[in-house]
């Protein structure tokens, strides 16, 4: 009988037989699981279930696989033995706290830490439902929260994780694409939620500029990033409701114009999933758009036009860039600093 494959080098085409899986194959090829093949098969089943039943995106599956690999590696070193289902069944709250402490010491951000804990909770609930093991120790742990006194803008990492996790909250594929398109539009173009929801299909251009009617009936032109156009086109192709130019661009599940309360509820779910602060709202994506542009060298006048502000002072108060960012921008752009 051939020797079992080395767990540290486990690949989809080996013991797991997942080389033909278009999603799990690349995920497990990129992130080998440091555990024996029998446990790796069970964990691959969970990842497959996440993809099929929960419709987790490949990006989310890859993130969960990395979190899982880090957890397994920690347990192997922490307990000094190979990780098995028996080891997982015997873990207590102190073991999970030790893992979270170790990841924090490695510099993992709080949103990423919250996602890692969410992945473990999901895994252990699935293991319980499938009668593999029964361990409720995670129920006593609280999801890490960000401090209340934080800027209203999301960090670049938080914004990226928010978009990546958006589709995973919806069971209906076209609704998931709608939410991703909407949040991508808010962050990629700096729109107010009301401005986005007021758009009709006839307002959606096939070019590179979107015309927005903002506060006070003031019109402005907003450049479209390719990623925004691709997300909107993907949503419209999947949307089951046909419509002409006067049809709302963003529709609810019954075909009417999407209600802002539905969007706010989705953002609250994302906050809970990622451990984001209460200030992480759809409007925070607009705030993040402006803050991140300014942090990367965008000038206030241009950002003012993109946001549709009547005065520059409003833009200055809105972005609230920290003094360190302003000092860096000053050093890099002022002629006498060169």
UniProtKB/TrEMBL annotation:
GO molecular function: DNA binding; tyrosine-based site-specific recombinase activity
Annotated ranges, domain Core-binding (CB): 37-128
InterPro entries found in the cross-reference section: CB, DNA_brk_join_enz, Integrase-like_cat_sf, Integrase_catalytic, Integrase_recombinase_N, Integrase_SAM-like_N, Tyrosine_recombinase_XerC/XerD, Tyrosine_recombinase_XerCD
Cross-referenced SUPFAM superfamilies: DNA breaking-rejoining enzymes (SSF56349)
Cross-referenced Pfam families: Phage_int_SAM_1 (PF02899), Phage_integrase (PF00589)
PROSITE patterns per UniProt: CB (PS51900), TYR_RECOMBINASE (PS51898)
GO biological process, one term: chromosome segregation
Gene Ontology CC entries for this record: cytoplasm
Subcellular location: Cytoplasm
Keyword field: Cell cycle, Cell division, Chromosome partition, Cytoplasm, DNA integration, DNA recombination, DNA-binding
Chief localisation class: cytoplasm
Active-site residue numbers: 192, 215, 283, 286, 309, 318 (o-(3'-phospho-dna)-tyrosine intermediate)
Stretches assigned to the Tyr recombinase domain: 149-331
Protein origin, superkingdom: Bacteria
Function per UniProt: Site-specific tyrosine recombinase, which acts by catalyzing the cutting and rejoining of the recombining DNA molecules. The XerC-XerD complex is essential to convert dimers of the bacterial chromosome into monomers to permit their segregation at cell division. It also contributes to the segregational stability of plasmids.
Alphabetical list of HAMAP family matching this protein: Recomb_XerC_XerD (MF_01808)
Protein family according to the UniProt entry: Belongs to the 'phage' integrase family. XerC subfamily.
Subunit structure comment from the entry: Forms a cyclic heterotetrameric complex composed of two molecules of XerC and two molecules of XerD.
Protein name per UniProt: Tyrosine recombinase XerC
Organism the protein comes from: Pararhodospirillum photometricum DSM 122
Annotated gene: xerC
